[in-house]
Structures are given as C-alpha cells and as structure tokens.
Design brief:
Low-confidence stretches of chain A: 83-90
Low-confidence stretches of chain B: 1-12, 21-35
Number of strands of chain A: 0
Order of helices and strands of chain A: HHH
Oligomer: heterodimer
Structural class of chain B: mainly beta
Order of helices and strands of chain B: HEEEHEEEEEEEEEEEEEEE
CATH class of chain B: Mainly Beta
Largest sheet of chain B: 16 strands, antiparallel, barrel
Distance between the termini of chain A: 59 Å
Number of domains of chain B: 1
Strand content of chain A: under 5%
Largest sheet of chain A: none
Shape of chain B: globular
Helix content of chain B: under 10%
Structural class of chain A: mainly alpha
Chain lengths: ~90, ~400
Amino acid sequence: MSTGITKLRGRRQAAFALRAAALGCAAALPLLSGCAIEPWVKPYERDRIADPIMSWDRDPVSSAYMHHVYEAREGARGATGSAGGGCGCN
Amino acid sequence: MAVTEQHGGVIAKARRAAARVAAVVCAVAVFSSAVHAGVLPEERADVLFHSYDGGGVTIQGPSLLVRKQFAENFSASANYYVDRVTSASIDVVSTASPYTEERTQYSVGFDYLHDGWLLNLGFTTSEENDYTAETFSVGISQDFFGDLTTLSLGYSVGSDEVRRRGDATFRADVDRRQYRLGLSQILTRSLLLGFSFETITDEGYLNNPYRSVRYVDDESALGFSWESEVYPRTRTSDAAAIRLRYYLPYRAAVHAEYRAYTDSWDIGADTFEIGYTHPLEGGWTLEARVRSYSQTAASFYRDLFPRREFQNFMARDKELSTFDSTSLRLGASYDVLRAGWRFVERGTLNIAYDRITFDYADFRDVTRGGAPGEEPSYRFSADVVQLYMSFWF
C-alpha cells in the first residue's frame, strides 16, 4: 500500500513540476526575448499599464483579507501575491 | 463568554493560516503593492471592516493599514487586524458546543530603495488566548529590461506556540519557512503577465489539540466514536501561479489566473479565476470576479476510520478532504475627495461582496443522521462582506 501511495505521490509531484515548469516557461519566454532587443514598450507607451485598474493589487488590505479567508478554508496555500507591477511609468 | 469547548475547523485552521498569512500580509498588504520596484510604495491609509458568515461561523473585525514615506528612500507601514469569531460550525456542533474568541494581529514593515533595488523587511505577530504566532519577512525586488520586468525574491521565517485551554502543561511549537519568487512582465502596451512560485515548510505540532476523528465503534449507539486527530509533524508545499491582466480598448480591464498546488500530504489543488473591472463616469468603478477551487484529500484523511487507532496519522478536517468551491464577487468603488482635502490627495469608498460555496465529496454531515459513513455529504455557503475607505496622501 505504501508503495502505491509513494507512486501516487510521485506522479502528483511530477505532474505539479511539469505544470510549474510550463507556467514558469510561459512567464520567462518574454523575459528571455527581452535580453536580445530594446524594450518594446516605451515609457511613453505605458499609459494603459499605469492606469490604476491595471494594478495587480489595487486594494492590498482587501486582498490580504481574502487570502486569509481562502487559506483558512482550503488545503492549498502560497503563491497568492504578485511580484509587484513592472509599470515602468516613472 | 467562556471558551472551554472543542474548536471548530475554521478558526483552528485560521490561526495556522494566520501565521502563514502573516507573511502574505507583509508581502501583499505591506510590500508588493509597490507598483514598480524602482519606487517606494505609495502613501496611503486604509480602514476596512470585514464580515464572514457561513456554515454556522461568523467572523468580523477591522483592519487598518497606514503606509508613509520618509527621508526620501524609506517607507514604513503598520497594519492592525482583528478576527472576532463566533462558531457553531459543523465540526463544533458534531462534538462540542459553540464558542467565541478573538485573534489580534499587528504587522510593521519597512522599505528601503537604493539604486533601483527595493528591500523589504517585515514583522507580524498574532495573538489568541491559546495560540501565538510571529513571522519575520525579508524581500528584494529589481526592475530589468527597461523596467519591463520586475523580479522579486522573498523569505519568511515563523515561529508559533500552540497551547490548550484547560491544560496548563500543554505547549507545542511550530516552525515555518517560506520561499517566494515573483515575476511581473509587461508584454504589450495593454497586457501584463505575472508569475509566482512559493515553497512553504512546516515542522512541529501541526494538528489541532481540540480536534477529533471518528471511527467505527459497534459499542456506540451511533455506530461510531471519536478520538484525537494526529497529523504528521512536517509538511512541505509548492504552489505556482500565472496571471494575466489586459487593458480593454474602452478603458476596462480583464484578468485571469491559474494556480497549481501540491504538498507532501498528497493534497493537490487547482485554482482558476477570471475578473472584470469597469470604471464609470462620475467616479464609480465596478468589479466582478469568479473563482473556482478544487482539491484532493490528504493521504491520511478519512471521514470514518474502520477502527480506533487505525493508522499513525489520522485527520477528519474538512479542509483536508476532497472538495470543490466556487466564489462570485461583486464590488463597487466610488472616488471621493477628487479635488483633495488638506493633506489628502484623494480617497475611495468601497464595498465588496463574495458568495462562496463549498461542496465536500467525502466529508459527511453527521448531524443529519444515517448509517455511519452513509450520511449526506456536507455543503454550505458563506457570505463575505467588506466595507472600506482608502486615502492617498
């Protein structure tokens, strides 16, 4: 039985690693392409990105509270915050 | 009110979550609202009242956040948060009596900006009459590639003390470590991409000193009896999330998010979310959001164990069972003080309502009767309301 659980755990972790890698690659592709060329969105073209409605976390007190609500009632945890914005408007 | 009865799952999980969320509070409420790694977080104050009502549990309280810059390169923040809990949840009514209690949390944070690098330090403490949690956080972020990319790294270390009412000799510890990686990327003039990865490790007394599991007992009139739950003393989890945010041509925004999760207890979970933000004339902003969550059970979870002391680790917390959850949010925000007032540049009045439903696949409602292990599956809905004011200065 323990062998079965170990295999199941191994498959789940492998599946998670695959999904995490896919998500990371999806996020990293533009980053890598950015190494080779000039910034493709100029500072004067970032008015839309700078709009408050594009903020990852417009209301930090509210979002922290909802993270707390979910984390108290769900088994999953983590990876809830953003990395900051990357507005580049200033 | 005297609190002598067995604890429900929500607050029990909530206090452990609170310890972890302490880092989230540091990372999200205090730090990561920085729009850009090259600048300090904006100066603002938020006053929030929150209310949760569902499954026989009500939780209410305030949250206050103030963030202020000083000396050009520094920013400081402070957060005060309270949960006032009244619980008659399914866990409580199954084995004990309703109770009330209160949890208070304080957080402070500091940001230092130097040569494009933003350094964050934070400390959070959470206190209840039978649980204390403290968390230190440190983070750093930097922009790259013409400020199109923001990379963030974070680390938190936490220490909890678990106590048990009515047992002055009981004290147990929990140690936590959290490792965070975040990436935010401008893809086009209208599209943002975000990626987060977080590993959390716990070691120590991870179960609840008040909670029980049930097992088949032919000697009992009900056909089952209760014994204390036993969790493993270690847990390691990994979560990865990707987010997209897109600016629509008519000044509105849509966002989508997916998070994958797995841990050493064999819980696997998927979270999906989509949302829409729409500003209106006259200072109003409306928001709608749908979130879907599903998870598989921990390897040592069972609704009904075949016999007493069936295995080394046993749990019957519904939060560790197999279940699905759906949330629907509607929110509205109204701009006030648009012309400013004294030192206040602007402000908003906000209301948000979330309806959350939980459908459990293998957690049964023992209060509704039936043969042991064949009771109806448990389900409930919760209403979450937030009223808050925000001011920028």
